[in-house]
Protein: Oxidoreductase
Amino acid sequence: MQTKKIALITGASRGLGRALATALSARGWRLILTARGEEAIREAAVGLDAVVLAGDVADPWHRARLAAIAADEGGLDLLVNNASGLGAAPLPRLADYPLRVLTDLFATNVVAPVALAQDALPSLRERGGAVLNITSDAAVEAYEGWGGYGATKAALEQVSHVLAAEEPRVAVWWVDPGEMRTEMLAEAVGVEALEAPEPDGVAARLAELVERRPASGRYQASELEVAT
Structure:
């Protein structure tokens, strides 16, 4: 009989998603991990109590397979919408932003998290579960070149806020992790990303957030408590 809590983490093959998978596994969670690269997601799951499925969260067929895996596991206690696209790079001004790229970016960063939440909500309600959406300061600040990405994160924040209001039995957190040394940041800003901290510290704070289960709302990782 399955007694462990179960989490689905998207974008789990690298960066924050991979670090959070490691942190939750250390706390006894069973994981469903997904990312686009087959080899990378299998490597990320080594040593973890996890089932993996490579694919694109923007693909409805892939989401349906994830929902089937979650059902086979008995349901979800936590959905982590971490998978995210950067969009056009080098970062263009909005006047020059390719609209097809922007459409695809909303599909990955907004529509997919909503769709995954829709699939997960029945079991999350039943189990008193939670949704953790990874956002960004670009959702609330006007950084030149970050208009496309920031717009998707602003939309994700509003989606999260409304979901929290509509689902009182489910905790909904949207968290700005701050700058981290990730491939996405390197793609956006280049070598400056090397000065950012590794994502492990943020992952530890997020794992503690999940365990403490505070009220639904927006949080900054830098302000979260760290387990001692």
